[in-house]
Each structure stands twice: as C-alpha cells, then as structure tokens.
Amino acid sequence: MIIFVETGVVVMPFLPGDSLLFAAGSLAALGSLHLIWLLLLLIAAAVLGDTVNYWLGHHLGLRAFDGRIRWLNQAHLQRTEAFFAKHGGKAIILARFVPIVRTFAPFVAGIGTMNYPMFLFYNVIGAVSWVSLFVTLGYLFGGLPIVQDNFHLVIPAIILLSLLPIIIEAVQARRKRRLIQG
Could you state, in order of their start, the residue ranges of all structural domains in the chain? Predict the structure, then answer.
C-alpha cells in the first residue's frame, strides 16, 4: 500500500519507498514473506501507483502547480521537466531511483506529450528494476547478523543514499549560482 501511495499520490513524495522495499526483502529472507509473491505484489503496486499519478497529471495538468499544495511547486516541476528533457523516456525508469523525482515524473509525463502506451512501457521496466533491486538487496543482506543488529541504522542509510543525487544536484546548482553571481 505504501509503495502505491508513494508512487501514485503526487502529494506524498516523502514516503520511504527504497527502505521499505529493503525491509520487505529482509522479511522475505527470514521466511516471513514469500519472495516471488512479494516481488509481484510490489511491482504491481508501483506500476499502478505511477499509472494513477500519470492520469492525475493528464487530467489536472499545470493547474496542480498553482501553489495551493506545498509539495507541488514550480521548483519541483522544473526539476522534473529538466530531468525529462535530459533523459527522455528513460527518465521514467531513472526517476524510480530518485526520491521526490519518482513521485513527480509520472505526473509530469501525464501533463506532457508522452502517450500512455509509451509511459506504461517505461513504467513497467522502471518498476521491475526498482522493486527487484531493493527487495533483492534486502533479501540478500537483510538476514546478515550485522544488518539485523544495526537495522535501525540501515534504513536511514538507505534513505540518505537515495537522497544523495538530489543533495549533489542542489550543491552543484548552488555553486553554479554563486559563480554566475560572481
């Protein structure tokens, strides 16, 4: 449910998708969850979530960025549009691995010129890649005693690593602004 909400509800970009997938993989390694069913369920939730988000963007359009919802601001829209301009259709795949961007990418795709069949193609590839990577990492490493003993540190570390691309880009943008300003 959280994976669906994080990817499908554009006002919820702060949910911990990566760390949740890792934790789910860890539970599967302990035998609490069946790995194949878990992967199928989470991939379906991710695809459906992004599909809902795409159609929200398609129907609401730019009206959603009028400032009434704090998370939907022009800066996020511009960052996601730049991501699309740079990466094209593969932006849907890459966005899965970047918190906040993963929430806005399908919405912006719905606003823009990407037709739904093309979006769905990239959406499925992205969902399979994202879910499989983090669940498998959790499955492989979640059962290790050092990970189990320090699980309270592992989850924040995953969140930090997931946010690293945004942090790096923000630092680079700030440096660029300072250079331009002299």
Answer: 2-181
